[in-house]
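User: Can you predict the 3D structure for this chain?
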Amino acid sequence: MSARLGLARPLLAWYDRARRDLPWRRAPSPYKTLVSEFMLQQTVVATVEPYFQRFLERFPDLPALAAASEDEVTAAWSGLGYYARARNLHKAARAVVERHAGELPADEEALRALPGIGPYTAAAVAAIAFGARTFALDGNGARVAARLWGVHDSIDVPATREALRARGLAEVPAARAGDFNQAVMELGATVCTPRAPKCGVCPLSSKCRAHATGAAARLPVRTPKRKKVVVRVACCACVDGAGRVLLVRRQAGLLAGTWALPTVELDGEDAGDAARAAVREVGVRAGRLVARGAVRHVFTHRDVTAEVFRVRAAARRVRDGQGARRWLGPEELASVGVSSFTQKTLRVALGPHPVPGGAGLSRGTERRR
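Assistant: Here is the predicted structure, written as C-alpha coordinates:
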Protein backbone atom coordinates (compact mmCIF):
# COMPACT_ATOMS: atom_id res chain seq x y z
CA MET A 1 0.00 0.00 0.00
CA SER A 2 1.29 3.46 -0.85
CA ALA A 3 2.15 5.96 1.85
CA ARG A 4 -0.38 8.38 3.27
CA LEU A 5 -0.87 11.51 1.18
CA GLY A 6 -1.78 13.89 4.01
CA LEU A 7 -5.19 14.81 2.60
CA ALA A 8 -6.99 16.00 5.73
CA ARG A 9 -5.61 19.53 6.16
CA PRO A 10 -6.06 20.84 2.58
CA LEU A 11 -9.31 18.95 2.08
CA LEU A 12 -10.96 20.20 5.29
CA ALA A 13 -9.78 23.77 4.64
CA TRP A 14 -11.42 23.61 1.21
CA TYR A 15 -14.59 22.03 2.65
CA ASP A 16 -14.94 24.82 5.22
CA ARG A 17 -14.90 27.35 2.37
CA ALA A 18 -16.81 25.54 -0.33
CA ARG A 19 -19.37 23.13 1.15
CA ARG A 20 -22.93 23.51 0.00
CA ASP A 21 -25.75 24.51 2.33
CA LEU A 22 -27.82 21.31 2.37
CA PRO A 23 -30.84 20.69 4.63
CA TRP A 24 -29.35 17.64 6.37
CA ARG A 25 -26.30 19.72 7.32
CA ARG A 26 -28.40 22.33 9.12
CA ALA A 27 -28.88 21.54 12.81
CA PRO A 28 -27.60 18.02 12.04
CA SER A 29 -28.84 14.98 13.95
CA PRO A 30 -28.30 11.22 13.62
CA TYR A 31 -31.85 10.84 12.30
CA LYS A 32 -31.34 13.49 9.60
CA THR A 33 -28.12 11.77 8.59
CA LEU A 34 -29.83 8.39 8.36
CA VAL A 35 -32.73 9.68 6.25
CA SER A 36 -30.45 11.64 3.92
CA GLU A 37 -28.16 8.64 3.42
CA PHE A 38 -31.08 6.44 2.39
CA MET A 39 -32.50 9.10 0.07
CA LEU A 40 -29.17 9.91 -1.58
CA GLN A 41 -28.57 6.34 -2.70
CA GLN A 42 -28.73 6.41 -6.51
CA THR A 43 -30.39 9.86 -6.47
CA VAL A 44 -29.05 13.36 -7.10
CA VAL A 45 -29.11 16.05 -4.42
CA ALA A 46 -31.42 18.38 -6.34
CA THR A 47 -34.09 15.67 -6.45
CA VAL A 48 -33.67 14.69 -2.81
CA GLU A 49 -33.86 18.15 -1.18
CA PRO A 50 -37.65 18.77 -1.42
CA TYR A 51 -38.43 15.16 -0.52
CA PHE A 52 -36.16 15.36 2.52
CA GLN A 53 -37.88 18.49 3.81
CA ARG A 54 -41.37 17.02 3.40
CA PHE A 55 -40.35 13.66 4.87
CA LEU A 56 -38.94 15.30 8.01
CA GLU A 57 -42.10 17.37 8.42
CA ARG A 58 -44.21 14.21 8.16
CA PHE A 59 -41.90 11.98 10.25
CA PRO A 60 -39.82 14.25 12.52
CA ASP A 61 -38.01 11.47 14.38
CA LEU A 62 -37.40 7.72 14.45
CA PRO A 63 -40.36 6.89 16.74
CA ALA A 64 -42.73 8.81 14.43
CA LEU A 65 -41.36 6.95 11.42
CA ALA A 66 -41.57 3.60 13.20
CA ALA A 67 -45.19 4.23 14.17
CA ALA A 68 -46.27 4.98 10.59
CA SER A 69 -47.75 2.43 8.22
CA GLU A 70 -45.89 1.27 5.14
CA ASP A 71 -48.43 3.05 2.94
CA GLU A 72 -47.77 6.33 4.74
CA VAL A 73 -44.03 5.96 4.27
CA THR A 74 -44.18 4.98 0.60
CA ALA A 75 -46.67 7.79 -0.05
CA ALA A 76 -44.14 10.30 1.32
CA TRP A 77 -41.53 8.67 -0.93
CA SER A 78 -43.71 8.66 -4.08
CA GLY A 79 -41.77 9.80 -7.12
CA LEU A 80 -38.35 9.47 -5.49
CA GLY A 81 -37.85 5.97 -6.84
CA TYR A 82 -36.03 2.85 -5.64
CA TYR A 83 -38.83 2.07 -3.19
CA ALA A 84 -36.95 -0.69 -1.39
CA ARG A 85 -35.07 2.18 0.29
CA ALA A 86 -38.29 3.49 1.83
CA ARG A 87 -39.29 0.07 3.10
CA ASN A 88 -35.82 -0.60 4.49
CA LEU A 89 -35.66 2.78 6.21
CA HIS A 90 -39.06 2.05 7.76
CA LYS A 91 -37.87 -1.38 8.97
CA ALA A 92 -34.68 0.13 10.35
CA ALA A 93 -36.67 2.73 12.31
CA ARG A 94 -38.84 0.01 13.84
CA ALA A 95 -35.74 -2.03 14.73
CA VAL A 96 -34.15 1.00 16.42
CA VAL A 97 -37.29 1.51 18.51
CA GLU A 98 -37.46 -2.18 19.43
CA ARG A 99 -33.76 -2.82 20.06
CA HIS A 100 -32.30 0.56 21.02
CA ALA A 101 -35.17 2.44 22.74
CA GLY A 102 -35.54 4.77 19.76
CA GLU A 103 -31.93 6.00 19.78
CA LEU A 104 -29.81 5.30 16.70
CA PRO A 105 -26.73 3.31 17.77
CA ALA A 106 -23.35 4.99 17.29
CA ASP A 107 -21.42 1.78 16.71
CA GLU A 108 -20.75 0.89 13.07
CA GLU A 109 -21.37 -2.82 13.59
CA ALA A 110 -24.63 -2.16 15.43
CA LEU A 111 -25.73 0.04 12.55
CA ARG A 112 -24.92 -2.72 10.05
CA ALA A 113 -27.16 -5.08 12.02
CA LEU A 114 -30.19 -2.90 11.25
CA PRO A 115 -32.42 -3.85 8.28
CA GLY A 116 -31.37 -2.36 4.97
CA ILE A 117 -28.09 -0.85 6.19
CA GLY A 118 -24.99 -2.03 4.37
CA PRO A 119 -21.30 -1.26 4.86
CA TYR A 120 -21.37 2.14 3.16
CA THR A 121 -24.44 3.49 5.00
CA ALA A 122 -23.21 2.18 8.36
CA ALA A 123 -19.83 3.86 7.88
CA ALA A 124 -21.37 7.13 6.67
CA VAL A 125 -23.79 7.39 9.60
CA ALA A 126 -21.12 6.36 12.13
CA ALA A 127 -18.68 8.99 10.83
CA ILE A 128 -21.05 11.88 10.05
CA ALA A 129 -23.47 11.49 12.96
CA PHE A 130 -21.11 10.20 15.66
CA GLY A 131 -17.58 11.15 14.60
CA ALA A 132 -16.33 7.56 14.26
CA ARG A 133 -12.99 7.27 12.52
CA THR A 134 -14.12 5.24 9.52
CA PHE A 135 -14.31 5.79 5.78
CA ALA A 136 -17.53 5.55 3.76
CA LEU A 137 -16.73 4.65 0.17
CA ASP A 138 -19.55 5.64 -2.19
CA GLY A 139 -19.32 6.28 -5.93
CA ASN A 140 -17.90 9.75 -5.38
CA GLY A 141 -15.32 8.51 -2.88
CA ALA A 142 -14.23 5.65 -5.13
CA ARG A 143 -13.73 8.04 -8.05
CA VAL A 144 -11.72 10.51 -5.96
CA ALA A 145 -9.57 7.74 -4.47
CA ALA A 146 -8.95 6.04 -7.82
CA ARG A 147 -7.69 9.31 -9.28
CA LEU A 148 -5.63 10.27 -6.24
CA TRP A 149 -3.73 6.97 -6.24
CA GLY A 150 -3.84 6.42 -10.01
CA VAL A 151 -5.69 3.11 -9.74
CA HIS A 152 -6.46 1.56 -13.13
CA ASP A 153 -8.36 -1.49 -11.84
CA SER A 154 -12.16 -1.43 -12.12
CA ILE A 155 -13.75 0.22 -9.10
CA ASP A 156 -16.71 -2.13 -9.52
CA VAL A 157 -14.57 -5.06 -8.36
CA PRO A 158 -14.93 -5.70 -4.60
CA ALA A 159 -11.18 -6.16 -4.09
CA THR A 160 -10.48 -2.77 -5.69
CA ARG A 161 -13.07 -1.05 -3.54
CA GLU A 162 -11.63 -2.66 -0.40
CA ALA A 163 -8.16 -1.41 -1.32
CA LEU A 164 -9.49 2.10 -1.98
CA ARG A 165 -11.39 2.08 1.30
CA ALA A 166 -8.25 1.08 3.20
CA ARG A 167 -6.30 3.93 1.58
CA GLY A 168 -9.07 6.38 2.40
CA LEU A 169 -9.30 5.15 5.98
CA ALA A 170 -5.59 5.80 6.49
CA GLU A 171 -6.23 9.47 5.64
CA VAL A 172 -9.18 10.02 8.02
CA PRO A 173 -8.15 12.28 10.91
CA ALA A 174 -9.01 11.42 14.50
CA ALA A 175 -10.85 14.74 14.77
CA ARG A 176 -13.52 15.80 12.25
CA ALA A 177 -13.90 12.31 10.79
CA GLY A 178 -17.45 13.13 9.71
CA ASP A 179 -16.42 16.33 7.96
CA PHE A 180 -13.59 14.48 6.22
CA ASN A 181 -16.03 11.92 4.84
CA GLN A 182 -18.43 14.62 3.70
CA ALA A 183 -15.56 16.58 2.16
CA VAL A 184 -14.56 13.61 0.01
CA MET A 185 -18.15 13.22 -1.15
CA GLU A 186 -18.44 16.98 -1.75
CA LEU A 187 -15.22 17.00 -3.77
CA GLY A 188 -16.50 14.18 -5.95
CA ALA A 189 -19.85 15.87 -6.47
CA THR A 190 -18.60 19.36 -7.32
CA VAL A 191 -14.94 19.21 -8.44
CA CYS A 192 -13.72 15.67 -9.11
CA THR A 193 -16.74 14.97 -11.31
CA PRO A 194 -17.21 11.94 -13.60
CA ARG A 195 -16.68 14.03 -16.73
CA ALA A 196 -14.47 17.09 -17.13
CA PRO A 197 -12.98 17.10 -13.60
CA LYS A 198 -12.00 20.62 -12.46
CA CYS A 199 -8.40 19.81 -11.57
CA GLY A 200 -7.43 23.51 -11.72
CA VAL A 201 -9.47 24.30 -8.59
CA CYS A 202 -9.01 20.99 -6.75
CA PRO A 203 -7.40 21.35 -3.30
CA LEU A 204 -5.74 17.96 -3.75
CA SER A 205 -4.36 18.33 -7.28
CA SER A 206 -0.76 18.55 -6.06
CA LYS A 207 -1.17 15.13 -4.41
CA CYS A 208 -3.12 13.47 -7.24
CA ARG A 209 -1.41 10.78 -9.32
CA ALA A 210 -4.01 10.97 -12.10
CA HIS A 211 -3.55 14.74 -12.43
CA ALA A 212 0.23 14.37 -12.54
CA THR A 213 0.05 11.79 -15.33
CA GLY A 214 -2.78 13.38 -17.29
CA ALA A 215 -5.07 10.43 -16.60
CA ALA A 216 -7.82 12.16 -14.59
CA ALA A 217 -10.38 12.14 -17.42
CA ARG A 218 -9.77 8.41 -18.04
CA LEU A 219 -10.26 7.35 -14.44
CA PRO A 220 -11.89 5.64 -12.74
CA VAL A 221 -12.14 2.45 -14.75
CA ARG A 222 -15.61 0.90 -14.62
CA THR A 223 -16.83 -2.56 -15.59
CA PRO A 224 -19.07 -2.16 -18.69
CA LYS A 225 -22.71 -2.02 -17.68
CA ARG A 226 -25.17 -4.60 -18.86
CA LYS A 227 -27.37 -3.44 -21.68
CA LYS A 228 -30.81 -2.47 -20.45
CA VAL A 229 -33.52 -5.04 -21.07
CA VAL A 230 -36.25 -3.67 -23.35
CA VAL A 231 -39.70 -4.54 -21.99
CA ARG A 232 -43.24 -3.92 -23.22
CA VAL A 233 -46.20 -3.98 -20.84
CA ALA A 234 -49.92 -3.29 -21.02
CA CYS A 235 -51.80 -1.58 -18.22
CA CYS A 236 -55.40 -0.55 -17.77
CA ALA A 237 -57.12 2.15 -15.73
CA CYS A 238 -60.43 0.76 -14.45
CA VAL A 239 -62.64 3.74 -13.58
CA ASP A 240 -65.94 3.42 -11.74
CA GLY A 241 -69.01 5.64 -11.88
CA ALA A 242 -67.69 7.86 -9.08
CA GLY A 243 -64.48 8.59 -10.95
CA ARG A 244 -62.35 6.34 -8.78
CA VAL A 245 -59.55 4.28 -10.27
CA LEU A 246 -58.49 0.78 -9.28
CA LEU A 247 -54.90 0.35 -8.09
CA VAL A 248 -53.17 -2.87 -7.06
CA ARG A 249 -50.18 -3.22 -4.77
CA ARG A 250 -47.17 -4.75 -6.50
CA GLN A 251 -46.09 -7.72 -4.43
CA ALA A 252 -42.58 -8.44 -5.72
CA GLY A 253 -39.91 -7.43 -8.19
CA LEU A 254 -39.67 -3.99 -9.75
CA LEU A 255 -41.49 -1.31 -7.71
CA ALA A 256 -42.59 -3.86 -5.08
CA GLY A 257 -44.73 -2.32 -2.37
CA THR A 258 -46.02 0.52 -4.55
CA TRP A 259 -49.50 0.90 -6.03
CA ALA A 260 -50.05 0.67 -9.79
CA LEU A 261 -52.62 0.05 -12.48
CA PRO A 262 -53.28 -3.61 -13.31
CA THR A 263 -50.27 -4.41 -15.49
CA VAL A 264 -48.99 -7.37 -17.47
CA GLU A 265 -45.72 -7.89 -19.33
CA LEU A 266 -46.15 -8.56 -23.03
CA ASP A 267 -44.55 -11.49 -24.80
CA GLY A 268 -45.69 -10.97 -28.36
CA GLU A 269 -49.43 -10.98 -27.68
CA ASP A 270 -51.81 -8.15 -28.51
CA ALA A 271 -51.61 -5.37 -25.90
CA GLY A 272 -55.40 -4.95 -25.72
CA ASP A 273 -55.98 -8.67 -25.15
CA ALA A 274 -53.30 -8.70 -22.44
CA ALA A 275 -54.77 -5.63 -20.72
CA ARG A 276 -58.23 -7.23 -20.73
CA ALA A 277 -56.76 -10.38 -19.14
CA ALA A 278 -55.03 -8.27 -16.46
CA VAL A 279 -58.34 -6.62 -15.64
CA ARG A 280 -60.12 -9.97 -15.37
CA GLU A 281 -57.33 -11.19 -13.07
CA VAL A 282 -58.26 -8.54 -10.49
CA GLY A 283 -61.97 -9.37 -10.70
CA VAL A 284 -63.26 -6.64 -12.99
CA ARG A 285 -65.64 -7.46 -15.84
CA ALA A 286 -64.30 -5.21 -18.57
CA GLY A 287 -66.38 -3.48 -21.15
CA ARG A 288 -64.85 -1.84 -24.20
CA LEU A 289 -61.21 -0.97 -23.61
CA VAL A 290 -60.14 2.41 -24.96
CA ALA A 291 -56.49 2.80 -25.98
CA ARG A 292 -55.12 5.98 -24.41
CA GLY A 293 -51.53 5.98 -25.64
CA ALA A 294 -48.09 4.76 -24.63
CA VAL A 295 -45.42 5.93 -22.19
CA ARG A 296 -41.76 5.06 -21.86
CA HIS A 297 -39.85 4.88 -18.57
CA VAL A 298 -36.18 3.98 -18.19
CA PHE A 299 -35.25 2.16 -15.00
CA THR A 300 -31.73 1.23 -13.90
CA HIS A 301 -31.75 -2.09 -15.74
CA ARG A 302 -34.96 -1.92 -17.81
CA ASP A 303 -36.31 0.23 -20.61
CA VAL A 304 -40.09 -0.09 -20.32
CA THR A 305 -42.78 0.99 -22.76
CA ALA A 306 -46.34 0.75 -21.45
CA GLU A 307 -49.44 0.58 -23.66
CA VAL A 308 -52.14 2.29 -21.58
CA PHE A 309 -55.87 1.52 -21.74
CA ARG A 310 -58.97 2.72 -19.91
CA VAL A 311 -62.25 0.96 -19.16
CA ARG A 312 -65.44 1.69 -17.23
CA ALA A 313 -65.99 -0.77 -14.40
CA ALA A 314 -68.09 -1.41 -11.32
CA ALA A 315 -66.23 -1.16 -8.04
CA ARG A 316 -68.32 -3.84 -6.37
CA ARG A 317 -67.03 -6.49 -8.78
CA VAL A 318 -63.45 -6.32 -7.48
CA ARG A 319 -62.32 -9.23 -5.32
CA ASP A 320 -59.65 -8.35 -2.75
CA GLY A 321 -58.18 -11.12 -0.66
CA GLN A 322 -55.22 -9.39 1.01
CA GLY A 323 -55.95 -5.65 0.99
CA ALA A 324 -53.91 -5.37 -2.20
CA ARG A 325 -56.58 -3.71 -4.38
CA ARG A 326 -58.15 -0.34 -3.73
CA TRP A 327 -60.51 2.06 -5.48
CA LEU A 328 -59.12 5.57 -5.04
CA GLY A 329 -60.42 9.00 -5.96
CA PRO A 330 -58.09 11.73 -7.29
CA GLU A 331 -57.41 13.17 -3.81
CA GLU A 332 -56.76 9.74 -2.33
CA LEU A 333 -54.05 8.84 -4.83
CA ALA A 334 -51.56 10.97 -2.90
CA SER A 335 -52.14 8.88 0.25
CA VAL A 336 -50.42 5.77 -1.13
CA GLY A 337 -47.03 5.08 -2.66
CA VAL A 338 -47.26 5.74 -6.40
CA SER A 339 -44.10 5.54 -8.49
CA SER A 340 -43.04 7.98 -11.22
CA PHE A 341 -43.79 5.26 -13.76
CA THR A 342 -47.34 4.82 -12.43
CA GLN A 343 -47.82 8.60 -12.35
CA LYS A 344 -46.98 8.64 -16.07
CA THR A 345 -49.48 5.88 -16.84
CA LEU A 346 -52.16 7.61 -14.78
CA ARG A 347 -51.61 10.88 -16.63
CA VAL A 348 -52.06 9.13 -19.97
CA ALA A 349 -55.12 7.24 -18.77
CA LEU A 350 -56.89 9.95 -16.75
CA GLY A 351 -55.50 13.35 -17.67
CA PRO A 352 -52.60 15.64 -16.77
CA HIS A 353 -53.03 15.86 -12.97
CA PRO A 354 -54.29 12.55 -11.58
CA VAL A 355 -52.02 12.58 -8.50
CA PRO A 356 -52.08 15.85 -6.52
CA GLY A 357 -48.49 17.02 -6.17
CA GLY A 358 -47.22 14.05 -8.20
CA ALA A 359 -44.64 15.62 -10.46
CA GLY A 360 -42.81 12.40 -11.24
CA LEU A 361 -39.34 13.85 -10.68
CA SER A 362 -36.46 12.38 -12.64
CA ARG A 363 -33.64 10.55 -10.96
CA GLY A 364 -29.95 10.13 -11.60
CA THR A 365 -28.04 6.90 -11.29
CA GLU A 366 -24.85 8.48 -9.95
CA ARG A 367 -24.92 9.49 -6.30
CA ARG A 368 -24.10 13.19 -6.02
CA ARG A 369 -24.24 14.91 -2.68
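The beta strands are 229-239, 245-249, 259-260, 263-265, 290-298, 302-312, 325-328. Residues 229-350 form a domain with the Nucleoside Triphosphate Pyrophosphohydrolase fold (CATH 3.90.79.10).
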